[in-house]
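Subject: for your reference before the review

Hello V.,

The reviewers asked for a structural picture of the protein, and I figured it would be easier to keep everything in one thread rather than splitting it across files. Below is the amino acid sequence we used in the manuscript, unchanged from the supplementary table.
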Amino acid sequence: MTKNLLFVFFLFSSLVFAQLMQPKLVLQQTSFDFGDIKQGETVSHIFVLTNSGGDLLKITNVQASCGCTAAVPEKSELAPGESTNLPVKFNSTGRMGMQKKTVKIFTNDPQSPEMTLTISGKIVTGEQSGSIPAIHFPETQHDFGKVSEGEKINYTFRFVNKGQSELVIKDVKSSCGCTAALLSSSNIKPGQEGTIKVEFDTKNRSGKNSKTVTVQSNDPKDPTKILTIYADIIKKGG
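And here is what came back from the structure prediction:
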């Protein structure tokens, strides 16, 4: 009886270990609603893809459901713990009313080789759209490159209100306690610029790291923005 139990335990442990050593795709979001979209505009949203497994994740293909939608990942291979951005663009030219489109992601994740993202929105004419705030980040990611373990590194992301009414930053959240984000102002008038300073404490960390900062605003088309920082941390004495 004891031998059988040991065999079952060993078999279970082996299966769990094998799964941990496989690549695994994790999506922070699987859907996004743009709300009202002014007819003729091209809107975009960034989805974050993360490899939470123990082996190299390969993104083999990304397919959009129609020609009005485009999606290309910034990286096609992710080391364990690494993330990448997948910008998804939707061209509303020639379309009206409610729209729902999908993007399929194909990877070498043996548990979920195919995953689906969904974007939606309502196409309206200029008279219907009204004046709204519009948050715009010239860049949404920064790579620090190689840094020594224990360093505190920081980078400042800029953003602009390209809309016609006041932009309100409702919340800024970091993915872990090792990352802090300092917002210059929570209320940005049309045409004005704001900043978010992101600090990353590399203490007790090593290897390739990617951390995210989620920015929530009153932009009805793109209320959630994801900022991503990368660092290759070298252990002291390594």
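For the response letter, the relevant points are probably these. The chain has a mean pLDDT of 87. The helical segments are 2-20, 126-129.

Happy to draft the paragraph if you're swamped.

O.
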